[in-house]
Each structure stands twice: as structure tokens, then as C-alpha cells.
Amino acid sequence: MIKEQLYQTYLQELLAGNKANCNAIVNQLQTDEADFRSIYLDLFQRSLYEVGQLWENNTISVATEHIATAITESLLALLYPSLFLMDHNGRKAVVTCAMNEYHQIGGKMIADIFEVNGWDSHFLGANTPIPSLLEHIESYQPDVVALSLSLSLYGNMERLVATLHTIRGNFANLDLIVGGQAFFWGGREKLKEVKGTDYFADITSFEKALPRN
Amino acid sequence: MEQALRHTAYNYLLEKAELLYYLLEQDGTIILANHRAQQLSAQTLTGQNFTSTLTSPTAGFKPMVAKEEPVLLNVANHGGLPMTYYFIFLPCDEVIAAFGQLDGNEVDRLRREMLDLNNELSNLTRELHKKNAELVILNAQKDRFLGMASHDLRHPIQIINMFNQLLKDDLVGDLSKKHQDFLKHIETSCIQMQTILNDFLDYSRFEEGHFELNLKTADLNILLAKIADYSGLLARQKGRTFLYSPAQTPLPATFDPAKIEQVINNLVSNAIKYTDPDATIRLSGQKDNGSARIYVEDDGPGIAPELHAKLFLPYTRTGQGDQDIDSSTGLGLAIAKMLMEAHAGTISLESLPGRGSIFCITLPISEATKEQ
């Protein structure tokens, strides 16, 4: 768990765009051997949810939100040297975000959870065109494809469901997983349209369900 | 009311608006600039020419004003990057009102591009870290494999050698010269294989950090004299001239005798291997401030400077010498470097083609006797 005072300090530095100070906080947490999951969930995820709310409430500008997101993304890289140490167990995953979805940190965290559980995960990034995604699935032959959606605005939810249909149409037996903040406001019922799609409300429940060996 | 509204709007334009607003004379002299324009400039604008607020030269003030379409101009931004504004110039009686505004579409395009680039960068960073981790694992696997393979091959080679010796001993009077030579070749090959395996084993142990130094404090001259004895014999057997110049003063150092002997032997055997039969090889020692220096020098073909650094990398050879008889693994100097670094020492090379080679190893002089 991240101490509340430290979290608040971090949040203020993030909102102020102080990358160096945010770096220092994460480096110290690593030195203190904080579990990366608590850094991911109690620091990164919590602060980004809060940044998102502040933007929705017109308290901060979209520019501030972008900077906070960019800083958080750069901080993920600080943890990579210790995350990618597991031997792979032969299982493979492709993780991506829905078309027009620029928020990729949630998806990236899922890809990293796959890795620490022995999976070889490929993260394709935000806004992956569907033909590229299908091509990659064809060549990489993953066991699972996971899609992340943070904002259900602008038809993103409909596009996600369409993408799921397209993948299912090409790969009848591929396991599909979806998740993301967008589902907090509904949309889960649409997933029933695509057979064999699992939904996970959060990273913790997703990791619990993940087969390891 | 309309007048009040105009007044409010004008005040807002002057004091708060993000638009740039200048009231200008016919020749471009600034009569008045709004708050935002002042903020960008960080200097008093009244009395300056409008063109002085721009970062790049223009065709002049009058041609700008004559245009009906918005004019793209880059405005100097004190303490920051220049900003592009689109200006319209509206003549009004004897003055000109100039309004500059940002292009929202352009800003949005820039934002999307920056987001895309940032995403791409961070994804590539992730991939890079993943690949690095895979390389670390592969490297460790390679070293473990080397170690295991070398270890498992040792025993069969020892068996071959042992039976070879038994044959030599038992049949010494019964074998023809030709068959005696066969047994000699078997023995030489066994020794070569053992050397290669020892190199692999040593290297994988060092890479994994699984070795210990058996440190003793002693005079290096004693070790050098011992090495000179048998190396001289070996060198002379191969037709080389071998010279030994001991240091004029003691060379007390803390070192693992077996490991330093291994390093010097490697240098001497390289000198013998890579020189012509009439070559001269010299082993010498010297005290130099706080270091003991040991030199292995030859008057062989020399080594091009661009190869010097590579020689100390694993599995590297110079490409000189007879490749058919060069059965070395290319690990000798890499191991020597690791051993010297483990002793807080150094190994270096001075050499030029045609000018021979001088390998130098250094060890810190032992503290206890530095004070003497």
C-alpha cells in the first residue's frame, strides 16, 4: 500500500507536470522494495483516475491531463528492468486498445501483468488499425487477445464491439478479454453479443484468473 | 446598452483575451498592445514597430496589411518557442487594428501527433526492455551450457589421455616411430582439448560470478622467476629466444598466485604462438609509483591498433598466425582481463604492425609495504 501522504504529494507533482519529482518518488518506492502492483494500482491508476475526474469536472485542462498521462507512461519504464525477469511459460498474449482509443496505460499494465505471470505479451499500443491487429494475431498466434477501453465516448464502445466481432469472425477459438474504465458506466451487456469474451473489472481480478503454468 | 457592451468587450480584449491585439499607425508603429501581446513580448511595445515583434523577416508592413486573407506570422515569445498566429489587419480611419489568433485545427493536429509519438516511444521502450531481459536470460543460458558441456567433456578426455599414456608406457619398445608419433598427436590433441575446455569453464564461471580469489601477499618477483624458468624452456623448444629481466626492487602485491600465473602464461604462450621461430620474447617486472608492472614483450608481427580493444572481447582472435594450427577459443585475453579487473589491476597492449607487441599487466603495490 502507498501511504496517503506520499500519494497526495505524488498527485500534486503529477498535476504540476514535475516529471523529475515524480521520478524520484517512484525510484524511492523501488528502493524501498514496494511491490510493483501497489505502484501500478495505488499510485499510477489511482492518480490517473483522479486526473480524469478533474478533467471531466473542468478543473484541469486537457493539456494538463495529457502531460500527467505522458509522465505516468514514462514512469512505467522505471519498473521494466525488474518486471521482465520471468521465464516464459509458453503462453502468449496480444494486448491492444480499441480503435480511436488513445489512452493506453491500462492496456499496458495488463500486458505487464501477463509478463510477470510468465506469459510472453505483445503490446500493440493505442489506436491499432484492425487489419494490423488481425495480421499480428495471424503471425504471432497468441492464446489470448486483450482489448482495453478507457473512454466510451465518440462511439468507442461500438467500435470495440465491432472489433471483437471481427476478431471472432477470423479466429473462432481465440480467447478474448476486455476491460477498462469505460465499462464503469455500462456497456458490459454489449459483450454478450460476442461469444467467448471475458470481462474483468480490474487488474487484481484479472491476475487472479490468469493461468500460470 | 450597446455602447456599454462594446466598452466591456473592448476592455476584455485589452486585458484578458488570448487573442493578440495591436492598434497600429499606418507605418506599423504600435500605439497600443493588449495584455496577451505584452505578455509574449515581455517588453514595452508602444512605440516599437509591429514587425519587430516577429521572429522572421517579412516583405514589409504594407504588403501584410494589403492582404485580405489571414497572414501567417511567427511572433517572438519571450522565454519560449515562437508562436504562430494568423493575423488580419483592419484599417480604421487613420489607424490599423491587427488581430492575431491561433489556428485551433493546427493545435489539435500537433496535440494528436505528440500523443502518437509519445505512445510510440513508450511502447518501443517497453519492447526494448523486454528484449534486454530476453538477452540477459539467453546469455545466462549460454554460460550455463558452456559450463555444463565443458564439465561433462572433461572426463572422457581424461580417459583418452590416460589410456594413451598407458599405451605409451606399455608399448614403448614395441611401437614403430610412426605409431609413437600417432600417440604423441593423441596426447597433444588431448592437451589442446583440455585447454579449450578449461577456458570455457573458466569463462562461464567468471561470467556467473562463481569464482573466488585465493589472495596472498607476496613478492611478484618470485612468481615471475618461476614462470621465466619453465616458459624459457618452452620458448627455446620452439626456437624462440626468451629473456627475463626481474624488477630492480621488490614487487609486493596481494594477488591469487594461480590466477596471475594463468594470466602471464597466457600472454607468454600467445607470444610464442604468434611469432616466428627466430623471435625474441622478454618477460620483465617494474615498480611504477603505486603499481607493480609486468611486461610480456615480443618482436613479432604486431597488431593493428583498431584490433587492440577487440582482442579483450570473448571469442575474438586477431586473424594472424596459422589459422590451421590456431585452436584457441579466443577467450584467453577476455579471461585475463576479467582476472586483472578482479584484482583491481589492469591489462593493456601497445603494438603496431611490424613493431612487435607489449602486453602490460598492473597490480596495486601492497599497502603494508607502501609505507616502507
Structure characteristics:
heterodimer; A: 213 residues; alpha/beta; 9 helices; B: 372 residues; alpha+beta; 5-stranded antiparallel β-sheet; 5-stranded mixed β-sheet; 10 helices; 12 strands; 49% helix; elongated
Helix content of chain B: 40-55%
Give the CA-CA distance, first to last residue of chain A. 28 Å
Distance between the termini of chain B: 101 Å
Number of strands of chain A: 5
How are helices and strands ordered from N to C of chain A?
Answer: HHHHEHEHEHEHEH
**How large is the radius of gyration of chain B?**
40 Å
Structural class of chain B: alpha+beta
**What's the overall geometry of chain B?**
elongated
Low-confidence regions of chain A: none
Percent of residues of chain A in beta strands? 5-15%
Quick one: which chains have the greatest interface? A-B, 24 and 18 residues
Largest sheet of chain A, in brief, is: 5 strands, parallel
For this structure, the quaternary state is heterodimer
Specify the number of helices of chain B. Answer: 10
Strand order of the largest sheet of chain B: 2-1-5-4-3
The rounded Rg of chain A comes to: 17 Å
